[in-house]
Amino acid sequence: MRLIDLAFSRSSDKGNHCDLSLIAYDREKYQILVEKLTKEALSDYFSPLGPSAIDLFRLDNLSALKIVLYNVLDGGAANSIKADTQGKSLSGALLRMEI
Amino acid sequence: MRTVRIASGVGFYGDSFWPAIEIIKEKQADYVCFEDLAELTLAILAKDRAKNPEAGYTKDLIPSLKAGWKLAMDAGIKIITNAGGLNPASAGAAAATLATELGITPKIAVVTGDSIFDRLETDELFLHSETGTPLPKNIRKEALFANVYLGAKPIVEALRRGADLVITGRVADAALFLAPLAYEFGWDFDDLDRIAQGTVVGHILECSSQATGGNHGRDWESIVGLEKIGFPIAEVNELGDATITKLANSGGRVDEFTIKEQLLYEIHNPFAYQTPDVVMDISTTSVRQVGVNQVSVTSTSGHRKPEKYKAIIGYPSGWMGQGILGYSWPDAYKKAQTTASIVAEQLKVFEDKVESIRIEHLGLDSLHAEMAAASEVLADLPEVYLRIAIRTQDRSVAEMVSRMMVPLALAGPPTASGLLGFDRSRALIGLWPTLVERGPVDENVSIAIFEAAR
What we know:
The complex is a heterodimer.
Chain A: E1 7-14, E2 17-24, H1 27-36, H2 39-45, E3 54-59, E4 64-69, H3 90-95
Antiparallel strand pairs in A: 1-2, 2-4, 3-4
Chain B: E1 3-10, H1 18-25, E2 31-34, H2 41-51, H3 61-75, E3 78-81, H4 88-102, E4 107-112, H5 137-142, E5 145-148, H6 153-160, E6 165-167, H7 175-185, H8 192-205, E7 233-237, E8 242-245, H9 256-263, E9 273-274, E10 279-281, E11 286-291, E12 294-298, E13 301-303, E14 309-328, H10 332-347, E15 354-362, E16 383-392, H11 395-398, H12 400-405, H13 408-411, E17 419-436, H14 438-444, E18 446-451
Helix pairs in contact in B: 1-3, 3-4, 6-7, 7-8
């Protein structure tokens, strides 16, 4: 299944890093995310962007995960020559991921 | 228990301020806070100030005050804003002039002291907070701005002195909203859980409509009334417990999911979100729907504030040149690829000056870029737009991208047609994050009171 079947996402920037929230539709779906979405899997999936590191935080109280991809925004908002300078669309790329 | 209502005024420089005016008209807030400064906004204001020393505050400040300030004064609603940007003093003077025009007699407080631009000439290291590198000489010399993120305390002090309007420069976004709560309820800044809960309220409100159904990922098609979306209003009690809502007749949605989404927005480490006033931990925060368009937010934990202030130094970082050119069926994608390779070939003249080239296809892979899914329909696309962008330190090289692309309408593959965007050159701006001692900054913070002439 894809992440979009379990959760929704919003992403944005802080400096050169992309910060993504993954919010489960309910507690059961959150449990699936917790079991199946590992840092290794994320690291593999986002390797085309070449992040220097990845963080993955669990928030049981909100049934949500926080993912940070470091150094993937070509210098960050005012310094990037990408069309999506702030990584706002990477939430969609995340939701396309198969687990 | 007494409650205080705080509303969002705007969520960034360029946001619509009309939803806030509606809130003021309906007297549904005690404070309206206008958050104008994203990380790169000061760079925009630096350009304005370079042209005119009286400028450097947002151009939306005076129009928004013109629209809502008299109504707010009549209703006893106070306004807090960081729209002062790089020039809070001039913003204050302009506001005082406007007050006279409007026939109102407010107390205007101007908070200054966030700029550390003068200190760039000293031998302070300004170590990069991620790499530990000292600030290089060329950046010191060319820097556009250097500002500390101040906390809520100076705003609390301004409110104590009776301000009806508080104008600041760089203040941490959420602090604009925390300040009136700390002032009204007399919160001690060592009461960390309460300060953290006030900061959470600020964090949820600081991006305006992103908390009320705008840019929302869950079931977005069912959200109605985005053309008249309401901005968030927080009703907060002295314990810091908050209920987030919006005007009854406004569009959008406030539910558990819109609030969670904004709560988590740009927060990086949710167990230790750094702000000047507190380190916020949202792993204990409770978000609960308590009514139609009413969500309760409680129980955030706070840890002691970071030892140092965060500051950002902005500096010129070269140029981008870009062009966007459309091609139609047949072979739209192949034509775009051919044009991209022609331009890449031509750019080789400047080889060592072109630091990077990006080739993107609007509608195919410009947003997800390297993460874009391969399309099976490439051969039969109805049309595609090719975007070529380069990074260089040489402005004249940046300008060559569009110079090279335009002639290809005749000299390149057939059917080039949508000549929609040629950015001859755009200045790129780098941001240098650093940490600075609190003491010298705090000594420099001052609050000036302007009163409009009667």
